[in-house]
## 1
Amino acid sequence: MSGRRRLPLAWIATLPFFAYTIAFLFLPAESVIVGAFKSNVHAGGWTFSNVTELFHSPYRHAYIVSIEVSATTALIGGVLGFLVAYAMIREHTPRIFRGVITTFSGVAANFGGIPLAFAWIATIGPLGIVTVFFRNHVHYDVTQHLQLFTKTGVEFVYLYFQIPLAILVIAPAIDGLKREWREASSNLGASSWQFWRYVGIPVLMPSMLGMFILLFGNAFAAYATAYALTTGVVPLIPILIGAYYQGNVLDNPHLAQAMAFGMFAVLAVMMVLYIPLQRRAARWAK
Amino acid sequence: MTLRRPRMSVSAIVWLLLAALYFLVPLVATLLFSFRSIQTNACCSLAAYHFVLHNGDFWHTLRVSGVLALEVIVISLVLFVPTIYWVHLKLPRLRPLIAFLALIPFVVPPIVMVVGILKVYRGSPSWFYDQPNGILAATYVILAFPYMFFSLDAGFRSIDVHTLTEASQSLGASWPVTLVRVILPNIRAAALAGSFLALAIVMGEFTIANLAQFHTFPIFLQYVNETEPYGAAALTLISFGITWAAMLSLLFIGRRRGGQLQLAGAR
Amino acid sequence: MGFLELQDLHRNFGPVRALNGINIALGEGEFLSLLGPSGCGKTTALRLVAGFDRPDGGRIVVDGKDITNVSPNKRDMGMVFQAYSLFPNMTAQQNVEFGLRIRGRDKSQRRGRVDELLELVGLGHAGGRYPHQLSGGMQQRVALARALAIEPRVLLLDEPLSALDAKVRVQLREEIRRIQLELGITTLYVTHDQEEALAISDHVAVMYGGVIEQMGAPAEMYTAPKTPFVAEFIGTMNRLEATIVDGASGEVDHAGTMLRVDAARGRSKGERVLVLIRPELLELNAAGNGATANGNTLSGEVLTQTFLGPVTRLKVTGGLIADMSTARAAALPVGANVVAHVPAEGVQLLTLTEDIPLVNPDEH
C-alpha cells in the first residue's frame, strides 16, 4: 500500500491524459463558451445580447425542433434498441447473432452524413428502389406517408445510428440481469410479463435512462446527416452553426458561439441528470 | 416461462427480422443503385465500381484516412491504456471522473468542437495546424475517447489487475515490462474493439474534416455524391463494407484466441 | 409410492449423458441430499425437478401427479439458489412477499406471513434492508424465507451454502434442517460437501457420472458403501486389495499376509476383492508390545502424523491410514514400527471386477 508520501507520485502518471484532455477538449470548449459572451460591437467587451438573441426566432424555433427530434429519436431508438439487444442476448438465440449485430452496430452507429442520407434516398426517396417497387406492384405511394426531407424523415433516418448506439450501450446492462433472478421469479410463480414488471425493468431502469440521455445528446449534436438530407429545410441548431461557418448568413461570430453555448447548456443539463442514474445502475450491477 | 427444446422465441425472431429489414434494405437499395449504368439508368453495370476503383482521388483519400485512423489508434492506445491501467491499479477513485470525462465528447457536438479547436490553435505551427495528421488526428482522438474508454475499461474490469501486476513484479519485472508483456496481451480483445470503433469513426467523420477543410475519405464521398450518383452508391457500400469487414475480422481473431470479445460483453 | 418421484430420468447434452436413468422415491416430509463431485448430474436433476429444463426421458411425479410437462412457475415448488438470486431492487421483506404478491394475496395477509418467516430464519430486524446491504449468509436466509413463503409442496436447494464461509455454513445448515423438520416439508438438497449431506439428511444419494451409485441413510452410506466410488467419496477409507483364500473361515490374502474378515465368508476361493476399513477402526500399537492377540495384523512404519485437533491421522507404510486420539498418537512418532490390527467384523468387502474404476484416493 502506498504511504501518504507516495500518493502524489501516483497522480503524476495520469498527467499526460489530463493534459491532453485539457488541451483538446476543455480549451476549445471553453473558448466557445467564453466567446458566446463577447461583444461583436465593442471589441473586447462582454455582453449577454448574443445569448438572449437565442430566445428569438429563428433560433428559438431551431432549438425547439432540435430538442424534439432528439427526444423522439432517443425514445424510439432506445426502446427499439433494447428490444433488439434483448432478442440477441436471450438464451436460445444462436451466439453468432450477437457478434454480427454488435459489429454491425459499431459501424452503423458512426454511419451518418452523406452516405446514410444517400442510402435512404436510394431506398424511399422519390425515385427510391422501394418507392418504385411499391408504386408499380402494389400501387401504394410510400411518399404519401413518409417524406424524407421533413422533420419526420430526419427522425426516421436518425434511427439508423440511434438504434445501434442504443444496442451497444444497453447490451452490457442486459448481460447484468442474472439468470438466477429470472429463474427465481418463475419458481415463485411469476409469468414472463410479471418478471419484467417487478424485477427486470426496475433493475434496468437506471441504465435505460442513462441510455436515453446519451441518445438524446447524440441526436442533438448530429450535423452531417441533417445537412445531407435537408440542406436547411428543417431548422436544426447544428445546421445554423454550420451555415455560419460556410460563410453564408451571419457576420457575428459570437452569435455562432452563443448558439454553440446554447447547445452546450442543453447537453450539460442532460449530463447532470445522467450521473446519479449511472451510480444507481452500478450499485445494482454489483 | 415454459421450456421446450432450445428454440428461438417468437418475439426474438420478430424483432431481429424487423431490425434486419430496417438496416439491410437501405444497403441493398444502395447496392442496386450502384449497379446502374449512366446510359440506361437501370441495371446492370459495374461501371460505378470501375469509376470508383480507378479514381486516383479514391485511393489518395483512402490512404489519408487510413493513415489517419492508424495514427489515431496508436495515439489513443498509448495515451489511454497506461492511464486506465494505472487508474484501475492505484487510483480507483479517479475512475468515475474519467468515466464522466469520457461522456463529454459524446455530447459536445463536433460542430462546436471544430469551432473551438480552430480558434484555439490558430497560431500553432503549420505542421500541426495545416496537416490532417496534426490537428485532425488530435481531435479524432478525443472523438474516439468514449468508445476507447468503455472498451478498455470493460477489459480491465474483466481481468484481475492487482493479482497480475503483483505476480509479475514478484517475479522481477519492471513497470514497462509488466504493462507490455503481462497486461497488454490480456486486454488485447478490448484494445482491438476500441481500435476498430476508432477506425469506424475516422472513416465516417465528416463535420470536422469539412469545416477544417481537410481532404479525407468522407469528404471525397460527399464530392462524388454531388457529381456521380451511382458512383456515390458504390462508394458508400465500399466504405461500409471495409469497416464492417475489419470489425468482423476482429470478431474472429478474438474468438480464435479464446478470449472474450469485449464488444460483446460477458455471458 | 413416494411423494416426490423421479422415474428413470435421462438428460443428454449433445454426446454427454448428464443423467443416465435416475430413480428416486422420496416420502413426504423427508430430506434427501444429492451428493457428488462436479459434473455428476446432481444439479441437472434438481433443475429438471424445478422445471428449468426438460428431461429427454422419464417422468417427474409429485403427489401422484405427473408434472414433467408443467411449466416452472406452476409447479408450486420453492427453490433456493447458490447465490445472487435475491431481486436487487427489493428489500428483504419485498423479496419474501414476492411469491405471495404474484398469487394475489392482499397486503395484510402478506405482511403477517413475511414477518413470520423472517423471524423463522432469524432476520426479523433486517426486513427493510436491500440485498447489497446483507452478508452472504443473511442473503441465503432471505432466499430461504422467500422460497417458504408460498408454502410449496417441495423445497429445492441448489448448493445453497457453497458460497459461504465455513463457520456460517455449519450454522446455516443446521438451521435449514431445523426449519425443514418444523415445517415438515419434502426437501431435495444438492451439495458436493459430504459432511454437510451426512449431517442433515434423512437419505443421501451419491451420484457419479449421471447415475446414482448408492442411496441410503447417512450411517448406512458411511459404514456400508456398496461401490469403491462411494467408499472413497464419503469419508476416508483404507482399501486393501486381497484374494479370497478360504470362504468358510473368511480368510483372505493381502500382499502375502493372511487376514480373517467376517465379510469374506461365503465367497469363492480366488475371488479378488477390496477390503475396506475406516481409519478409526484400524488399531495401531507399537511393535513388539505383545498386544497382537488375534494375529489379524499388518506391520509397518509410521510415515507421517497429521494433527487434526482431537484426532491425529497417521499414515503407515503399505498405504494404511489410521485415526486415533492425539494423546495416544504421541506414543507413535514418525519412524516408529507399528502393528495395525484389522478387526474381523465391521469391515466391508467389495468385489473387484475389471470394469469398476478404482478411484484414486488422492483425487479428492
## 2
Amino acid sequence: MATITTSDVRLHTLPPAIGRAGLRGALASEFTKLRSVRSTYWALGALLIVSIGVGALVMGGESGSLTHNIANRAGFDGTQVSLIPFFEIGQLIIGVLGALTITSEYSTGMIRTSLTAMPRRGVVYAAKAIVFTGVTLVFALITSFVAFLVGQAMVASTREGASLFGNVKIPANAIFSGPGGPGSPPKVTLQGIDVISASTVLRAVVGTALFVTLVALIAFGLGAIIRHTAGAIATVIGLMFIIPVIIQTLPQNWRQDIMRFFPDAAGRVISVTVPGGGDPNLWSSWPQMIVTACYAVGLLAIGAYMFSKRDA
Amino acid sequence: MIEVRGLTKRYGAKTAVDDLTFGIEPGKVTGFLGPNGAGKTTTMRCILGLDYPDEGTVTVDGKSYPDLAYPMREVGALLDAKAVHGGRSARNHLLCLAQTNSLPRRRVGEVLELVGLTEVAGKRSKGFSLGMSQRLGIAATLLGDPKVLMFDEPVNGLDPEGILWIRNLMRSLAAEGRTVFVSSHLMSEMEHTADHLIVIGRGKLIADCTMREFIAGSSGAWVRVRTPSAEEFVRAVAAQGATAATDQDGSIEVRGMTTEQLGDLAFSEGIRLHELTTVRASLEEAFMELTASSVEYRADVPGAQQPSTTIGSGV
C-alpha cells in the first residue's frame, strides 16, 4: 500500500509479505512478552533467592546437627535436603509465573490485542507454552544445580555432602548402645556403608528441576482453563499442597494406595539419592515423574482446547 | 473487503447480533452506528475472530480472518485502547505485536513517531492517559500498513484535540485508499467523518446507505420564516398548496416549498421577511428517529427536546 503521511512523519513501505505468519513469529513475540514485564523478573528472582537461600540455611542447620549428633549422619541425604526448598516452595513461585503467563493476558485485556494480531490460536498457545517451558526449564536447572552445590558447600566440614563428580560413602545405620537417659547419652556406633553414586545425584538434581518445570506447566494449563490469576493459583495450591494434606488424613491403607496417583509425589521421590530412602508406597522416581507429566500434559491439552474454542 | 452475512451471535439467552448482513466498501469511511448495546462491538469481535458467530459468516477479502496470511497487513483493529498489559512499555508492546506478523523492528519506531509517543516509548503503558493509550492502540493498527482499519468508539473519552486528531487521521487513511470502519453511538461524530453508514439497533440492521441518503430519508427539510405579517403569509403559503404552521415563538414552519419559492412569494405579496432559513434534520435527529424503537435502555426525560442543527442562510 501507499505510504502513510500525517503531518511530517512518513512510514516506510513494508517489504513484501512472503509465506504466512506462523510459529516462528509467535515464538519471538511470546519471548518479548515474557521478558518485558516485571512479574517475570520478580518470579524468577524469587525462585533463585528462596530456593538457594533457604536451601543454604537448611543445610547450614544440618551441618551443625551432623557435627553434634553423629547419629544423624546415618542415611543423611544431602542432595534431597539441599533441594527441599526448591521443590517445595520454588514450585509454587514458578507456578505463579506459569499461571500469570496466561491469565495476565485475560486480566489486562491484552488477549484481544494478541489474538487480533495473530488469530491462529493454536499457534499462539503453542508459542506461549514453548517459550514458557524453555525459560522455566533453564531457570529450574540453574536453580537446582546452584542450590545443590551451595547446599553441599554448607556441609563440607562434615564430609557428608553429596557430589556430582564421584561416589560418596555415608554410614548406613546408627546403632545406639549404653543406658541412655539424662546425663548419660547413649553411645552411638555407625554401621554399614551406603554408596551414593554421582549418577544418582545427577538424576536427583536434574529430575527435581524437571519436576518443578512440570508443576509450572500444570499451573500454565490451569491458567488457560480458569483464566483468572487468583483462581488458577489457588487451584495449583490445592492440587500440590492441600490435596496431599487431605490424603494424609485418610486411613493408612487407602492413603498407601492412592498417593502415588497425585502430581506432588514425584518431587519427594526424584530427589532421593540414599538407597531405600524413598517412600515405599510410591513408585520409583521416573514412573512417579510420569504421573506428574500426565497431569501437566492433560491440563495443557484441556487448556489448549478451551483457549481455542472459547470466545476471547 | 469485509462481508458480513447472516451474522448471529447469542450470549446465553440474549441475542446480541441478529441475522446481520452488510458489506464494507474499500476506500471509504464507513460509520457503524447504533445506540449503546446495539451489537456494534460484538459484530467487530466476530469480524476479528475473537468471538465465534452462532450463525452466519464473516470474511475479509473472501477469507475468514484467522485464515489471512498476515492478518496485521490486512486489517488493523482497535477495539479497546486499554486492552494492553500495563506493565509493558509502549515499545515492547508494539514489538511483540510486530513480531507475530514478521514485521520489521524499525516499523515500531516509525509508528511511535507517527502517533507522537516516541518520548514515552520506554515507559510502561500503565501510566498512560486515555488519549495516549488511544494513540498507542492506533500505532498498533498501523504496524502492518493494513488495507482495512477498524476502530470501535475511537473518540470516547477524548479531549477535543484528541478527537480532531483521530478525525483527521481517519480521513487521511481513507484518502490513501484504505477502508475505514468506525463505530460510534454519537451521530454528530459521524457527520464529520463518514461517507457511508451502517446503522444497527438491537442487533438488527436498520440502515445501510450513504450519509446523504440517510439524512434525506429522515423527516426531511423545512423552512423557518419570521415575518411581522404572519397571518397574511400563512394564507399566501396555503394558497400555494404548501403547509405552514405557526410556532409558539411566532416563527412559521413551512413544508413543501423552498427558500427561493418563499422569498419570491413574499416579494410578490409585498410581505417583509425577518428570517428565511432551511432547517434540515440533523444526523442526530435522523438517528434518534430511526433507532427510537431499538434503544435497549431508555431513560425518559420529561420535556426534553431533541437537538436540531440549522443549515442554510438567515435573511
## 3
Amino acid sequence: MAETTVQKASKQELPQTSERVPLLRARGLVKAFSGTVAVSNVDIDVERGQVVAVVGENGAGKTTLKNLLVGILEPDKGFIELEGQRISHFHAADLGIAAVHQEFSLFPSLSVAENVCITDLPGRRWSVNWRKTKEVAKHYLDMIGADLDLDTPVEGLSTGEQQLVEIAKALRQATRILILDEPTTSLSEPERERLFQVIHRLREMELGIIYISHFIDEVYEIADTAVVLRDGHRVGGGPVSHLPKAKLEELMVGRPITELKKEIGTPSDAVMLRVEGFTSEPFFRNISFELHQGEILALFGLMGAGRTELVESIYGLRKAKGRLWVRGQEIAKPTPPTMRQLGVGFLPEDRRRNGLFAIRSLKENLTAAAIDLLVDRVIPGFGFRNEKKRAEEIAKKLNIVHAGIERPIRYLSGGNQQKALLGRWLATGAKVLILDEPTRGVDIGAKDEIHSLIAQLARSGSAVLMVSSELPELLRLAHRIMVLRKGMIVAEFTQDEFDPKEIIRYAASEQEIRHGNG
Amino acid sequence: MAMVERKNFLQSILNSIRGARWLIVLGGIFLLGLAFSLLSPAFLQFRNLQNIIVQASVTGIMAVGMTFVIMTAGIDISVGGILYLTLVLATGLALKMGTGGIFAGTIIYLIAILLGTILGLVNGLLINFVGINPLVVTLATLSVYRGLAIHINKAGITIPPESARFLGIGKILGVPVPLLLAILVTFIGALILSRTRFGRYALAIGASSTSAYQSGLPVRPVLIAVYAIAGLCAGLAGLILMGRVGAVQTDMGIGIEFTVITAVVLGGTLLSGGRASILGSLLGAILLVMIDNGLNLMHASAFIYDIVRGSVLIGAVLIDRASALELFRNWFSLRNLKVSNQRKIST
C-alpha cells in the first residue's frame, strides 16, 4: 500500500485540501463475471498531473479495471473516489473522465468531425451547429497533431487514424482523467511519438492519466508510477524510477515457473503442418515453420502481435498469401470445412462467440464436428445411435462436470465449456490442433486439466500449434516457442533454451531478431 | 422462505412451458376447440372441420418449411409470393402444353414443386452470395414473385384441370389428402431435423453461425438449402390450396407469411435460431387457423383475427425470451428486497 502513496513532486502550489486528496482513489475493487474473478481487491491512486501505468499480461484484469473506473461496470466490492467524493453508477463524461477504449467506440459511417463531437454535438437544443462541430473537432485533432479530413467517414480511415479520432474524442471529454487502454497497438511510430507528446502536455494541464499497456518500454517512457496486475490481483507497483525493468518483468510473468512441467513426450520427424511465407498485411509477414507429429509448438506474443490472425489464416478463417501443407498435402485454399476433413482442429480465442453453441446440449456441442463420423449406416444418413455414447465417453475422459449431457452447454462453467470445445476435436480424431488461448478465462483447476490433456494429446501423436499470451503455460507445455512481434517471428527457443525473461524481452521490447538454432 | 418456494415454482412452470411447447399448444387447441364448439354450433360441423383441416394443412406445411429457415436464425417472407407464382407458372405451362387427362395433375404438381424449390433457392443464393439480410431479400423477392405472377397471369383467374385438384379435395381411404400430406411433411421434417446431419448443422448454425463455421461445418450450403426447403413447402401448400379453391386467383397467399411465421414461433422455434420444433409448427398452424375459423363463425370482425394473431406472436416471443423469466425473477427479488428492508426498519 505504501508504494502507492508516493507523491510526485507537484508542479504547482495547490490548496492544502486538494493536495491531500488524490484526484482519483479506488480501494479494494472486486469484479467477477459468472464466477470468474477478473479484478480482485485492487487499489489505485491517481494524482493530478500524474501518469499511472497499469501493466499486466493479457487477461490480468486491466481492461476490467478500466471499465470499472469509467463506470461501464459497477464493482462488486470496493469504492472509487473522485476528488474525495465517492462515485458510483456514474456517467464518466459528466465527471470529466474519458477513456480511449481498445475496441473502438466510433461510428463507422459518421464523419471524423461528428465522431469527435458525438457525445455532445455543439448547437442549440434541437439543432446541430456543423461549423462549430468542425471547429471543435479540428481543435482536438490539432492537439494531437492529427491531420485528418474532417468530412471523411471514419470507416475509410486506417486503424491508426481511427485510433487518433478516438483519442481526440476522449480528449474533449477528459477534463479530469484520461484513461488510455493499449493506445499504441495500432499506431505508427510517428503517431506514437505524437501521442506521447500529447500525454506530456496533458500532464502539464494537471490531468490524471491512466495508461494501460503491456509494452514495458512504454511504461518507462511515459509513466510516473506503475500498477502491476496479474490474474486480477495487484501484485506490485510504485514509482517507475524505483522499479527496475527486470523486476517489473518478473512481476508481470508472475508465479515462479512451477516445476509442474508436463510430460510431453518427444516429437517425431513427420511433418504434420508446414507453413511457408505466410503473409497478410498488416498483421503478419513471411511466416514459415514446420509442425511435427507429437510436437507442441507455441506462438508467444503480445496482443496485436498478429498471433490470432496468423493461426486463423492457417485454418482458413482469413485470407493470406503463402503456401500451406497438411500432412504433406499442399492446400491451395484452406477453408474450415476442408481443414476439418483433413483432420485439423481449431480452438478459437473467443470461446463464447466462435466456439460454443450455447443453447444446444453438451452432447451436441461435443459431436458437432464429428457428426458425419457418427451417422448410422443402417438406414444411410438417418440417425446417430452412437452419438450419446461417444459424447459420454469424451465427457468422462475430459472430466467435464455436467448435470446431464442433454442440458444446454451454457450452464457449464467456463473451464468445462473449454474442455468440451477441445473434446469436440477429440471426437473427430483430429491429428493437428490449433489452439488459440486454450486456457483464457478458465480457473486454475481446469487450466491444469487442459494442460494435461494437451500434453497427453501430443504424447499420443497429435501435433499442437498453441497460441498463448501466458508465458508460464507455454514454458510448461511447449517443445518449442516462437516469439511473434509486430507480425514477425523474431525469435525461436527450443525446450532447453527456455528463458522467460529473454522471451518476454523479445516479445515486448524493441530487440534485434534472434535466430533459432534449428 | 415461502417467497423462495413460490419463485422456484413459477420458474419451473415457465421452464416446462419452454421445454415442451407443443404440449401447451396442443392443450390450447383442445381448449379453444371446446370454447368455439360451445359458442358456435357450426364449429363442429363436418364441413367446417374439413375447412379447418385443409386450411391448417396449407399453413402447416409452409410452417414446417419455414421452421428450417427460422432455426438457422433466418426468415422468409416471400413464401406467399412463391405459392402464387408457382401456381400461375405451373398451370400456365401445363395448359400451354395442352396436356389433359389424368397426367395434367401430375405434371402441374411436379412443375409447381420444382419451381417452388427453385424460387426458394434463388432466395438462398441471394442471401448467401450477395450477402444481404434475409428479411430484405425475401421482402424484395416477395414483391418480385407476386408482381411477376400477376404480370404473367394478367391478374386473371386460371382454372386448373380437374385432375389437378386431387391434392386439395382428394381422399385416400376416406382421409382427406391435405391432412395426409401435412402429416407426411411434418414426419419427414421432424426426421430430417432430429436424425440427419443437415438438421444438426441447421440447428448449430442457428445457435451460432460463427461457431459452426469455425468448427468446419458447411454453413453456406445449409443456409441455401433451408430456403429451398421453404420454397418447396410453399409450392406444395399452393397445390392444396388450388385444389380446394378450384382456381388460381390473385389473392392467393397474400399475408400468409405472417400466419406461417407466427405458427412457427408459437410452436416453440426460436426466432433467434438454434432451437426448433417441427411438430410445434404444425400445431401452431392448426391453432391459428382454428382461431381464424372460430372468430369467423362468431361473425367477429375480420380485423379481430389480425389483432389476435399479432398478440399471439408477441406472447409467444415473450415466453421464448430468457428476459421474460428474468423479469419474473427480478420482480420477485425486488419484492423480497423491499420486504427485508421493511423488516430491518421495523426491528
